[in-house]
Amino acid sequence: MSSATSSSRQAARRAAIKRTVSAADSAPSTTDASPADSPRGSASSTSLSSMASEAELKPVQKSYGKLVDTYGNEFEVPDYTIKDIRDAIPKHCFERSYVRSMGYVFRDMILLATTFYLWHNYVTPEFIPSKPARVVLWGAYTFLQGLFATGLWVLAHECGHGAFSPSQRFNNIVGWVLHSALLVPYFSWQLSHSKHHKATGNIERDMVFVPRTREQQATRMGRLVHELNELTEETPIATLLHLVGQQVIGWPNYLLTNVTGHNFHERQREGRGKGKKNGFGGSVNHFDPRSPLYENRDAGLIVMSDIGIAITATALFFLGQRFGWSNMAVWYFLPYLWVNHWLVAITFLQHTDPSLPHYTAEEWNFVRGSAATIDREFGFIGRHLLHGIIETHVLHHYISTIPFYNADEATEAIKPVMGKHYRADVSEGPIGFIKAMWKSARWCQWIEPSEGAEGPGKGVLFFRNRNGLGVKPLQVAAPQ
């Protein structure tokens, strides 16, 4: 078979994949289907002649040239299929239980209520005369409540994916109540998060923590593209300020302006994105039924999300009027900031690491994008209070309808299929998780092709930085 014929078949396959995934983008549910999204077809669903074509397609890896991640490790694009992943997982891992899932909801609510009762009644001047001691203890209260509330947030996240129970109606009722109580627009986030799962690692369609390309980074800094590798090191204080801003206002900023999401809204097929862009005043947010993040048919769900937020805001207003705003700040708003912190930290570290690739639209597919995630470890807090969302994220991206209490077993099942493509950073446990925030902020500043990339390999992008860490950025010649 001629190379031209082989290339045309590969191009046709990629075009079919792109059409399939584009069509999936409009799905209103986050219950993930299995897209036709792997680099090669499954042998169990192909004829002998197409299996011969598959054998010819396997060596295409060589045409990518030498791909190198930020650590300097050589990288190969995944070549397994979503069917390989599904077939490896025991069937009972897909089973969802109303009773078990609601049991975790009640457990987290009891933790919240018990903590409030104990602090409200016993961390008082009568029992603890020392004011500094009371301040420290109430600070601990906000931290604990933030963890317990984040646990409820994660359970609502399970509802959004259909992993909470077999009934999506029941899932949506529970999820809407829990997320609304945490000032999260449930359906609005559910829809945009679904699109994130369907385009993870695609720099033109992903919905969260899409890294800047070298060109975008240069533009943001008011530099020319070739100047990035000549800049002096970013000061640690600049990195720290960036992280603090990200952790404090990152979540509400994302909901209000779509910061870190893609900015190709003109491509919205119903024309809703015309003239709209990320940022304040750009009309791209999670509250406007006309937002280009959604389709026309989603408008009612966005309104329902806004109603949930309005109900919670009204309740908080009357509670503030009744019990005082200083009390409400400690009881609700400071724990709320802790929730925001954990959400941003978790999401950032699930998708930002020196070992992870990103892909142009031409080289992306579902299998590759889902493998461009990483599991981490947060000890007892992560596995029990936050329901394993940190430790089993790779599996979650492949099949997000598996409930969290079966995710550990399912993760172990897919590791042999993924092989070297499975990524985890579990060193030092919770301390390592916190350290990874600093490391990722210093190492992962923009993405660009590897120096040795060839042909389609130029569509596989890796993090680079101006801090002299890891592989150096490309040497780009100045324009003549």
Automatic annotation (TrEMBL):
Entry's Gene Ontology BP terms: lipid metabolic process
Domain Fatty acid desaturase N-terminal: 77-111
Keywords: Membrane, Oxidoreductase, Transmembrane, Transmembrane helix
CC terms in the record's Gene Ontology section: membrane
Residue span, Fatty acid desaturase domain: 138-424
Keyword Translocase: no
Pathway entry: Lipid metabolism
Coarse class of the protein's main subcellular location: membrane
Low complexity compositional bias, start-end: 1-10, 22-54
GO molecular function, one term: oxidoreductase activity, acting on paired donors, with oxidation of a pair of donors resulting in the reduction of molecular oxygen to two molecules of water
UniProt-annotated location(s): Membrane
Annotated signal peptide: none
UniProt-listed InterPro entries: FA_desaturase_dom, FAS_N, Fatty_acid_desaturase
Region (Disordered): 1-54, 265-284
One Pfam family recorded for the sequence: DUF3474
TM helices/strands, residue ranges: 104-123, 135-157, 169-189, 299-319, 331-349
Family: Belongs to the fatty acid desaturase type 1 family.
Protein name: Fatty acid desaturase-domain-containing protein
Species for this entry: Schizothecium vesticola
